[in-house]
Amino acid sequence: MAGALDGQGDKVKTIDPAPEPVFSMADAKLGDMKSTQATVVAANDLQITGMNDAVAPSTRQERLQEFVDGFGHLGKMYSDSVHDSARFSKFQDRMMNVYTYDHATFKELGRLGDDMTENPPPTPEQIGQALGHSLKNTMDRQLKTGDVNFGGPDMTNLEGAMAGVMLAARAHFDPKTMEAQTQQMVDAMESELRKQNVPDVHAIIWGDTKEPGLAVVPPGGNLGDRHNFNM
User: Fold this and answer.
1) Could you tell me which of 1, 62, 66, 72 has the C-alpha nearest to residue 216?
2) Rounded to whole angstroms, how far apart are CA atoms 92 and 182?
3) Contact (CB, 8 A) for 157 and 15
4) Residues near 182 by Cβ (< 8 Å), separated by ≥ 6?
5) What is the value of pTM for the model shown?
């Protein structure tokens, strides 16, 4: 049986709650965020992270501001892409839990969101490649202190957040070529996941909505058509 994940809360399998976030977004408004400077690095260079990416700021207010700054561009693009407040709230919750689970991954995704606002933005292929590499980065960090369960709550949340990043990226896709660009992004992520030997996780396109997502298919499972995925 495949477990499928995307930016839609109604399509994600029921999982145990993620760890309690270190703050609540009820304490701040995204409109009040400080301006951020994009890293303007090539998307496929996301493996080069800052020395302190693994360490969250020491104070609650600094952590809150860091989240707002890191989530701001991604959140705006996601909202522009899906036009659904409930889905936006779910994506925000997922990104908060990524912040708690693996701070360096949150920083990587935030930098990718910043780069997506540049002119020109990364190509769909660069975005997909960056996400595949970032998932491998997360896996490597987590394996240093324990095991990785791609069907567990933390990784399930991360996979859903990464699917949300792909949805956010589509805010800057040309509506006339949306389907082709989505496929390019998904195929680039799939290629990078296979190149990095990430097991079980596959980049897919939903058959009903034609939106990008991720599917966890255990060994021996039937993935089917990745471009027309059905649970």
Assistant:
1) 1
2) 22
3) yes
4) 124, 166, 170, 173, 205, 210, 211, 212
5) 0.81
Tokens of 8: 């839609």
pLDDT digits (tens, 9 = 90+) for 157-202: 999 999 999 999 999 999 999 999 999 999 999 999 999 999 999 9
Domain ranges (residues) in the chain? 3-228
Q: 120 preceded by cis ω (within 30°)?
A: yes
Taking the C-alpha atoms of residue 153 and residue 165, their distance in angstroms, rounded to an integer, is 18
Residue 197, Cβ neighbours under 10 Å: how many?
8
DSSP 36-85: -------GGGTTS--TTTTS--SSHHHHHHHHHHHHHHHHHHHHHHH--H
Which letter does DSSP use for residue 118 in this model? Answer: S
**CA dist., res. 157 & res. 95, Å (int):** 8
Query: What's the CA gap between 39 and 161, in Å, rounded?
Result: 21
